[in-house]
Structure formats: structure tokens, C-alpha cells
Specification:
By secondary structure, the protein is an alpha/beta fold. The protein contains 20 helices and 6 strands. The protein folds into 2 domains: about 170 residues, HUPs (Rossmann fold, 3-Layer(aba) Sandwich), CATH 3.40.50; about 190 residues, Hypothetical protein af1432 (Orthogonal Bundle). The chain has a 6-stranded parallel β-sheet, with helices on both faces. β5, α7 and β6 form a beta-alpha-beta unit. Bound molecules: fe (ii) ion (2 copies).
Length: about 400
């Protein structure tokens, strides 16, 4: 009986998915003309994935981006959902139930192909799918053809495609990122951007400014990026003026809006993943989120351990009672960065040069009044901050404004 559908399956850890994966998939789509090609990232349990590995969700999302380059491709998450060790034979059985009356073509790299007899129930695999691989010129393909003969003798149906040799491997790509080397030749543009935006495979032991700029550019538009650079410069200037740590000011200023253009649902996801407390006020005010999700991202993803820097980002929109000098510098720099041109900015700049606290009163009066006018909830941290600086001011601790 003729099968209804032809389904090609391409599984792997895809950590990350790269151009050689894409060209193998494209070659088989051309050869087999399947109804669909399923890209299936293998489950890597969290405890097995080292710090320099991408998580399941990240590998899945990179596959979704790469799938756009492959006709008929879809990403299938059954192995991630099944959890535990991913056995291809289980996946094929499951897929046979989801897509009955289908003919399956299992695509794999040469290294996987030659080791097939070590997989779980290889004979069963041979019954469930046509085994497909590539023979790349330049390498030694003797073993590959030997194994091919062996599998056929065991009843397998196989397809071996001749393809140009490729030197790309996921391991090399991860190493390249870790060592600050370009990867644009190895992965598609969307995956490259994703790797930067999510700070994957980076060396988290040291702060690397050129890479941080790549992260920012991948996460925000040109205007916001310029603003971030300007806040960083202004924060360094204020730190110099008032005796705060300039290096910390530079970093906190640069990263303060890192999630500002991140979609709200992704920000919520970041906050939940890193256990940011979410009360009703926070949940009902997405405008407050980027300070919180940004601080969580900087601490957990970028790996900035310095609490003062993380707090400066966390409270850069609201302020809070008992702010550190660095927190104040970032808070004010966000108002007085070079590109700001709102009415009152000159006054704000003048105050910032005389006293951070008087500039804070001026800035907070603005923002609190604006929120109240729009009947928007006001972050209690902003009120606490305002009250503290106003009371200090009354006691004469703050230069008169
Ligand atoms: Fe901000
Ligand atoms: Fe900002």
C-alpha cells in the first residue's frame, strides 16, 4: 500500500545549528522531496549541559530560526518534551503514531551513521525509517561505505548523498565564540544574532566590551543602543565628579536598558526563570519590567556578580530609599545622557553637576507627576526614594534647588 506522506527527520543536539546542518537538510529536501522535514533537537538534561552549553529552549529557538532557510522544514520538540535520554527509536515510534501511513527518512551526519550499531535497537530503526547520510569528499569514506553494505545486509534501506566537504562543527563554533572569533561564516544571520542576544557560549569569566556591544546591538535598535552608550559615558562622568567607581558606572550605564526592547512575554519569562518577585503591582505594570528583567539578565546571563551594578540597573527607573552612589549616578545619567532633549533637560544637567540628590528630586517630581496624571500605578520604591531625598533636603543635606 502506498504511504500517504513522506517525512524526513533530522535530529541532533544542534548546539548550535549551523550552515553544514542547513545544507545537509536542504540537499535531502531536494533529493527526497518530502512533505515535511522535521528538525528535532535532542534533549540535554539541565544537569548535563555545562555552563558553556545552550539550554533546550535556546537550541529549539535557534532551530526555529534556521528552519526558515530550509524548504518544508518544521521544528519538532518531542524529544525535549519526552525528557530523559533521547532514543531515536522511541522518537520514530512516537512519530509513526502522530503521522500514520507515513514513510520516514532519518537523516544523520557521517559520524552518527558509522556508529549506528551502537544505538538502541538498530534493527528496529531499519524497519522504521530509510537511513540517510552524506559522504563528504576529501575525508575517508571507506568505513562509511563498509557500514552501508553491512546495514543493507541487515535489511536496511539507505541513501548516501555525495556532498562537498565541510569543516564546520558545533564544537568549533562554541570555541570561536568563547575566544572572541567571528562566527558569521558558520551560522545563518538569525542564529548569529540569537547567540549574541542570549550571550551563548561566551566566556563569562571576564567582561568583554566588544561582545557586550554585540549583545546590545542584537537586542535593540540603533537609537536605544546609542542611548545606552551615552548613559554609560554620562555615568562615568558623574562617577568622576562624585567619586563613584568609574568602571562600574561604565558597565551599569551600558547595560541598564538591555531588556528594554525585549518583548514583554520574554521579559516575564526572564523574571520567572530567575525568581524575581512579582506582585500584582509589578504584573499590572509592564513599564516597570525592563529594570527588573534587565538586572536579572545581567546577573544570570551575562554573569555580572557585582551587586551594586545589578542594583543600579534594577532601580534605574524608580530609584529607591537608601541608594548607593553608583545607583544615583545611573539614575541621573539616564535623565542627562547626551541625546536627551526634553524640556527641562538643561535644568536637570545643571542640577546634576551641583548635587545628585537635587537632580533626583527634580527628576522624580517629573516622573511621579507624569504617572499620577495618567492614573498609572506608582512604584513604591519611587515614592520611598522621593520621600527620602525630600526629607534630607529639608534637613539641609541637599543643596537648595
Ligand atoms: Fe530604562
Ligand atoms: Fe535608559
Amino acid at each position: 500500500m502506498k504511504k500517504l506522506r513522506k517525512i524526513a527527520i533530522y535530529g541532533g543536539s544542534f548546539n548550535p545549528i549551523h550552515n553544514a546542518h542547513i545544507s545537509i537538510a536542504q540537499a535531502f529536501v531536494k533529493k527526497l522531496k518530502p512533505d515535511k522535514l522535521l528538525l528535532i533537537p535532542t534533549n540535554i538534561p539541565p544537569h548535563k549541559s555545562s555552563e558553556n552549553m545552550a539550554q533546550n529552549r535556546e537550541r529549539l529557538e535557534m532551530c526555529q530560526l534556521a528552519a526558515k532557510q530550509i524548504k518544508k522544514a518544521e521544528v519538532c520538540s518531542i524529544e525535549l518534551e519526552r525528557e530523559g535520554k533521547s532514543y531515536t527509536v522511541d522518537t520514530l515510534r512516537q512519530l509513526s503514531e502522530i503521522y500514520p501511513d507515513s514513510e520516514f527518512y532519518l537523516i544523520m551526519g557521517e559520524d552518527m551513521f558509522v556508529s549506528l550499531l551502537d544505538w538502541r535497537q538498530p534493527e528496529e530503526l531499519f524497519k522504521l525509517a530509510v537511513i540517510c547520510t552524506v559522504a563528504r569528499g576529501g575525508g575517508d569514506v571507506t568505513l562509511l561505505y563498509e557500514m552501508d553494505e553491512k546495514y543493507k545486509a541487515m535489511g536496511a534501506e539507505t541513501i548516501v548523498l555525495d556532498m562537498k566537504k565541510s569543516d564546520i562543527s558545533s564544537t568549533q563554533i562554541r570555541a570561536a565564540v568563547y575566544n572572541d572569533k567571528s562566527i558569521s561564516k558558520y551560522v545563518c544571520e538569525d542564529v548569529e544574532r540569537y547567540i549574541y542576544a542570549h550571550y551563548l557560549y561566551m566566556n563569562k569569566e571576564q567582561i568583554n566590551y566588544p561582545w557586550l556591544h554585540k549583545v546590545l546591538k542584537a537586542r535593540m535598535g540603533e537609537k536605544r543602543y546609542q542611548h545606552s552608550c551615552n548613559v554609560s559615558d554620562e555615568a562615568v562622568r558623574l562617577a568622576g565628579l562624585y567619586g563613584a567607581d568609574k568602571d562600574k558606572a561604565k558597565l551599569a550605564g551600558l547595560l541598564h536598558d538591555i531588556t528594554k526592547e525585549t518583548p514583554h512575554e520574554d521579559q516575564l519569562d526572564i523574571m520567572k526563570r530567575y525568581s524575581v518577585p512579582l506582585d500584582d503591582l509589578v504584573l499590572s505594570s509592564p513599564k516597570l519590567w525592563h529594570a527588573m528583567s534587565g538586572a536579572a539578565f545581567v546577573k544570570n546571563v551575562i554573569g555580572v556578580a557585582d551587586e551594586d551594578i545589578c542594583n543600579a540597573i534594577r532601580y534605574h527607573t524608580s530609584g529607591r530609599a537608601g541608594m548607593s552612589l553608583l545607583e544615583k549616578c545611573i539614575f541621573i545619567a539616564d535623565f542627562t545622557s547626551a541625546e536627551r532633549n526634553y524640556s527641562g533637560v538643561e535644568k536637570m544637567r545643571e542640577l546634576a553637576d551641583k548635587s545628585l540628590e537635587s537632580a533626583m528630586i527634580y527628576g522624580l517630581s517629573f516622573s511621579i507627576a507624569e504617572l499620577a496624571e495618567k492614573n498609572t500605578a506608582i512604584d513604591p520604591n519611587a515614592v520611598a526614594c522621593y520621600n527620602e531625598v525630600v526629607l534630607n533636603n529639608r534637613r539641609g543635606d541637599v543643596a537648595r534647588i
